[in-house]
Amino acid sequence: MVLVDVTTIVAAGPAPIAPAAGELMPVTSRMAPSGALVVAVHGEMDATTCPLLHDRLIAHVRSTRHLILDLTGVSFFGAAGLTVLVVVREAALLADCRLCVVARTRPVRLSLMITGLVGVLDLHTDVTEALVCLTYQRERGWLILVSPAISGDRALTCPATSDSSWLVLRA
């Protein structure tokens, strides 16, 4: 029987190199014709990548009145991603910035449904829908998109999208 010291073998190998946060989660920003800032996130939203995203989104919230966070390209959405959304939402409220979140993929939507953030965030299925609803909100006083699972709220189908899976409260 041969005894092998596993710690020596592990320590003798090359040290793992963690990719930079930007490599794991590319983030692109563009200004929509309406003046809304669209930030698209791709890759994994986890404890490694979210601190950089948090800082970037907080800076955007302070510099714009309408921010659309497009999570369509997110392949993994961990607890750190949920934390970033909650913190950025609060910062947006304090800065008088309208935050819209585009969440279409299963990893993101499932996490938002399980945690109840579906009823808290202004959620959309694509960027175009978010832009149209921003226009309706400015022109007609729309407040927020909510989940139909929330009962007791006075709600209408969003006239901008005719999407019956999300409802719109009106002031």
TrEMBL record:
It comes from the Bacteria. The chain crosses the membrane at residues 67-88. It comes from Lentzea atacamensis. GO terms for molecular function: anti-sigma factor antagonist activity. Residues 35-134 form the STAS domain. Keywords: Membrane, Transmembrane, Transmembrane helix. This is Anti-anti-sigma factor. Coiled coil: none annotated.
